[in-house]
Structure formats: C-alpha cells, structure tokens
C-alpha cells in the first residue's frame, strides 16, 4: 500500500524518472496514486533524518508513460537510463536510484522458488520473497565486484583496457566479479592478468572506497 507521507522514485525496468535538470525525481503520494499502470512498490529506506520514507515504484509495462506532475518549478520529467545517469546524481540520490533499480531487477527475475519451482510472493514491503509451496524465503543476490586503477612504478601512468563491446577510442580501468572464496585483492590480481597479461602483487592492492552497482550481475 502507498504511504501518504512518503516520497516515491519511479522506475521502468532499467530506467528511472528524472527532472529536466537531471535530478532524481521524487513524487508525492497524490501523483503516484493517480498512476493507472500496473506497478510494484518496494520500501527503500528513510531520508530527511529518518523522518521521510522512500519507496521505489516499478512500472511493469514495456513503454511506461511519464505521469502528469506539477511541482510549481516548471521542470519537465522523463525516463533515462539508470546506469549512465545515476553517477551524475548527488551521492544520496545515486544510492537511492541504484537501490531501487537493484530491487526492481531482482523482483522481475525471481518469480519462482529456486528450490521447488513454485511461484513466490513478495513480503516485507517488497524486500524479500517467500515460496507459496515450501515457504522458503529469498532475498536479492549480492554480486561482489571490484574496479581497480593499476599504476606504473613511476606513478605517472595507469593501465587501461578496451573491450570489443565499447565504442571506438573508449578505454577503461579494470573491473570484474569476485569469484567464490576469493579475496578482493586476489580478484584484482586475477582480473589484471586475465585482461591484460600484467602480473601484480596482491599485497600492493589498497582499498579506496565502495559504491552501489546493481548491474550487471554475474
């Protein structure tokens, strides 16, 4: 059920609703209530010093329409690709957009129990599922991954790679998924060797920061 005092982030698969200034759009209760398309709502957490609940609303149609909005600012609204746009948001909005996207993608892909194959139903405000037959609970899968900057000994150069799927002249730092039973340091060394043939010392790997990143999954 919708919460009158909450804010809502609207999604359509891998797209999220933004304002014309490329800020994440937070919709109010009345606007979301007016949406007639089939949707799925998930609790994302609390903001504004834990005073305001935020929900993600995933519109399940293939070509969802932008709801009529009028916040008095004259801003226009549109759906944009979450993967390419979320990094442009503020830190909080980036986290909320990717959090909502992760749940939306998991919910779309996990309609059946992995143990017995029976349908599952969403529980706990959309954050978990429970099998309708064997009662087994399930939660979104976590896929730990790493991204690393490999520097030269002189400190003036970094190692870049280019994937065949990337546009011409696009090069990136190295990234990949952590395998079962593997440390992050070992993953950095393995991915570097696999992608470039360069051998690095696991002991030289230092941690910098983390970020939410729900796509792709391994």
Automatic annotation (TrEMBL):
GO cellular component terms listed in the entry, alphabetical order: cytosol; peroxisome
Write the record's keywords in alphabetical order, separated by commas. Answer: Hydrolase, Magnesium, Metal-binding, NAD
PROSITE patterns noted in UniProt: NUDIX, NUDIX_BOX
Task: Kindly list the GO molecular function terms attached to this UniProt entry.
Answer: metal ion binding; NADH pyrophosphatase activity
Q: What is the lineage of its organism?
A: Eukaryota, Sar, Stramenopiles, Ochrophyta, Bacillariophyta
Q: What is one Gene Ontology biological process annotated in the Swiss-Prot or TrEMBL record? A: NADP+ catabolic process
Q: Which SUPFAM superfamilies match?
A: Nudix
Which reaction(s) does the protein catalyse, per the Swiss-Prot or TrEMBL entry? a 5'-end NAD(+)-phospho-ribonucleoside in mRNA + H2O = a 5'-end phospho-adenosine-phospho-ribonucleoside in mRNA + beta-nicotinamide D-ribonucleotide + 2 H(+)
* UniProt xrefs under Gene3D superfamilies: 3.90.79.20, Nucleoside Triphosphate Pyrophosphohydrolase
Pfam families the UniProt entry points to: NUDIX, NUDIX-like, Zn_ribbon_NUD
> Nudix hydrolase domain: from which residue to which, for each copy?
140-218
Write down the required cofactor(s).
Mg(2+); Zn(2+)
Q: Which family does it belong to?
A: Belongs to the Nudix hydrolase family. NudC subfamily.
Name the chain's protein: NAD(+) diphosphatase
Q: What is its EC number?
A: 3.6.1.22
Family annotation (InterPro entries): NAD-cap_RNA_hydrolase_NudC, NADH_PPase-like_N, NudC-like_C, NUDIX_hydrolase-like_dom_sf, NUDIX_hydrolase_CS, NUDIX_hydrolase_dom, Znr_NADH_PPase
